[in-house]
Automatic annotation (TrEMBL):
Top-level division of the source organism's lineage: Eukaryota
GO molecular function terms noted in the UniProt entry: oxidoreductase activity
Record-annotated Enoyl reductase (ER) domain positions: 38-361
Species the sequence originates in: Setaria italica (Foxtail millet)
InterPro entries tied to this protein: ADH-like_N, ER, GroES-like_sf, Lipid_raft_assoc_Zn_ADH, NAD(P)-bd_dom_sf
Name of the protein in its database record: Enoyl reductase (ER) domain-containing protein
Length: 364
């Protein structure tokens, strides 16, 4: 569960950095900071933001592109405040593509200047919206030469989220049937492609404008959720349902279309929201109780497994994501790019849904 990582990371945050064999190339840099929670207008591009010393298993990356994830917008607005409020001003951002600028003592598998891409864990304390970002060894992998930095930066956070659900939780295997609710979004599209690559038969719900994209990703069926009844449109039962939307209606559909023993996974777990409402000490046990209650309820009523799934750094998953994206089998189309100095406009475009699809920030 992510809250174990939260506690571990809090301990790490309070500790003195371990020895750094490779000196950081930069001691300070430009970064986008959130000085207080709020709308896009709170984002500030600041110079001279400190770059911490590298720990032994960390890599300093010169950022070339970062994609915007819904989590960035939510963190900017105060989601996760139980963890992040004491850390304001905060650097947000999870995805990255760039070049290695320095390596920690035990990170010599990466070389200076090497092109890499990856994503930070959701609870990482210093984000990627900075000229220099720090990622651990298991959060980075070499960037396929066939992808630009912009294209690469769109992939890791979404794909690792889908990977964790499909492979870590549901343990999908060849021949199984997977339903992706919200196949038109970044995580949904990654899930369709990862499940297809694993040899599964995939159906997905999406908006009419995403049908072609979802079918192009290898789905057997794309159901327009604005025009069709999903339950009536799908045929037979599924082994796994990944629900990227996670509202009561999609949860009801997801549970109903599973075979007994199947896995329903929502990306809208309530742990962070409950921790924000009640504080970490009370909120996390409340979240555990709420999850257990649902799990017992659906096991008894439908014979299915119910999960909240979260993105997690996963070296094996990232390696497979690199392999598939290098082979052209895993793509997240980028709809629009903004220079980093226009980060407010970029967040506004995502927030107001002015751009349908991935938005990427480019670093000069
Ligand atoms: N738990 C975690 O660790 C984790 C990690 C990553 C993301 N998330 C969450 O997962 C969600 C998706 O993330 P993302 O990066 O994929 O976002 P995204 O790229 O912005 O995609 C969102 C998509 O949802 C689709 N959609 C909206 N309502 C729908 C419905 N009723 N049925 C089917 N599709 C619907 C839309 O697709 P159409 O354009 O086809 O209508 C939209 O493009 C966000 O809420 C995000 O916060 C959670």
């Amino acid at each position: 569960m992510w809250w174990r990582a939260v506690r571990a990371r809090r301990r790490i945050a309070g500790a003195r950095p371990a020895s750094t064999a490779a000196a950081a190339a930069e001691k300070s840099c430009r970064a986008v900071v959130v000085p207080r929670f709020g709308g896009p207008e709170v984002l500030e591009v600041r110079q001279g933001v400190p770059v911490p010393d590298l720990k032994p298993r960390e890599v300093l990356v010169r950022t070339r592109a970062v994609s915007i994830n819904p989590l960035d917008l939510r963190m900017r607005s105060g989601y996760g405040r139980s963890i992040f409020e004491p850390l304001l001003p905060l650097i947000i951002g999870r995805d990255i593509s760039g070049e290695v600028a320095a390596t920690g003592t035990y990170a010599s598998s990466f070389s200076i200047g090497q092109e890499v891409f990856g994503a930070l864990h959701p609870t990482a304390l210093r984000g990627t919206y900075a000229d220099y970002a720090i990622l651990s060894l298991d959060e980075l992998t070499p960037k396929p030469s066939t992808l630009s930095h912009v294209e690469a930066s769109a992939i890791p956070f979404a794909a690792l989220t889908a990977w964790r659900a499909l492979h870590g939780t549901a343990r999908i295997s060849e021949g199984q049937r997977v339903l992706v609710i919200g196949g038109g979004g970044a995580v949904g599209l990654a899930a369709v492609q990862l499940a297809v690559a694993a040899g599964c038969g995939v159906s997905a719900t999406c908006g009419s404008q995403s049908i072609e994209r979802v079918m192009g990703a290898g789905a057997e069926q794309a159901i327009d959720y604005t025009a069709e009844e999903t339950e009536a449109a799908v045929k037979g039962k599924f082994d796994a349902v990944l629900d990227t939307i996670g509202v009561p209606e999609t949860e009801r559909i997801g549970i109903n279309v599973l075979r007994r023993g199947g896995h329903y996974m929502t990306l809208q777990g309530e742990a962070a929201a409950l921790a924000d409402r009640y504080g970490l000490a009370v909120g996390l046990p409340v979240a555990t109780a709420a999850l257990l209650k649902k799990q017992m309820q659906y096991r008894s009523s439908h014979g299915v497994e119910y999960w909240w799934t979260y993105m997690r750094a996963d070296a094996e998953g990232l390696h497979e994501i690199q392999r598939l994206s290098g082979a052209g089998k895993l793509q997240i189309p980028v709809e629009k790019t903004f220079p980093i100095n226009q980060v407010r406009e970029a967040h506004m475009a995502k927030e107001k849904k002015l751009v349908h699809g991935k938005v990427v920030l480019e670093f000069d």
